[in-house]
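debug: dumping io for the single-chain case to check the tokenizer round-trip. Nothing else runs in this session.
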Amino acid sequence: MPTSSPSHYRRTDRRRAVAARWFPRRRRGRGFTLTELLVVISIIAILVALTSVAVVTALTFARQTRVKTEVDALDLAVKSFQERYGAYPPSDFRTLGSNPDLKQFVAKAFPRYDLTNLTNDLRATGIDFVNFRPDQALVFWLNGFSNDPQAPFVTIDGYQVRGGGVQTDDGTPTGKPVVASRTPLFEFDTSRLAHVGNTVTPAPADPNAREYPSYFPQGSPTDDTGAPYVYISSRSYGELLPDPPTGATTRPVFNADGPTAAWQEIFINAGPAAPYALDQDNNLSLDIDNDGIPDPGDGWVNPDSFQIIAAGADNKYGGKIDSLGNKNNGASPARLYPSGAQYDTSPEMVDEDNVTNFSDSASIGDARP
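debug: decoded output
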């Protein structure tokens, strides 16, 4: 049996030495301790939380920016309306036949229109004007009217109202048909136009009256859990506030002096969308709550035009109100811009993310000094 020579063993040893030099054995690494693992997990959790907050913040800001862009577009549309018709439209449709703001506006905007037809023409649309709200008024005015100066309401929202300027008592158009084109001032996204019915009295004169649509911002539910865009004419600022602020008696934030809390009964979770007052110099220049005592503020924001208000991501204009529409904001029921005085801060900063046409910021909270 052959045996290995001593030289063979020497060669083998040299090979092993070379292999050990070039290919050293790796020592088995020590594993993480439980403490180290917990530290790593905690760091990952913090990073995930920070990322989530950043993502939510970015999404909220993106939504506010989109809403602000649309609010500014609505603002331009209303200003175009004023340029075309000579006045800003009213936001209050109470008592069609005797509403001075509505009649004065229609007389100025459509001087060739027979004003005695106004009530019948509007009622003939089948729209519930008894409980008409300022959110609906925004859509109503910007949807456009007939180009016939003697029959501007010949078609409203696709409904023919009058035929040849002649109308029967029941609203049925007679005479030759009038083909009238409408010229809208704003192209509404129809997927965000929704009819939200009133649930309060008084009932409309026609029990089959249809609700006029409201226009909702992107991201807002299009039902009574959402918060549509609101248009408030300067002529209605003083009328759209609870009076007095104690809540003993109130005038609803919308449809002032009309049905009891019509707006709040529908959008009870949204809170009141009252107009904002200005407080840059705090001149005590107006009695906002009509209690005979001057309130802090320099007057209304946009005192001679209008305010457009959109609720933020929380779909709330202000603080929650009770089922009677009572709201008490303290000494003054008006929110003061830009300082944020009288903003609702409980249970959350519900005013802060509101978007308006009078603030250059994405939200009024961003405009606070």
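debug: round-trip ok. The first helix runs from residue 6 to 22.
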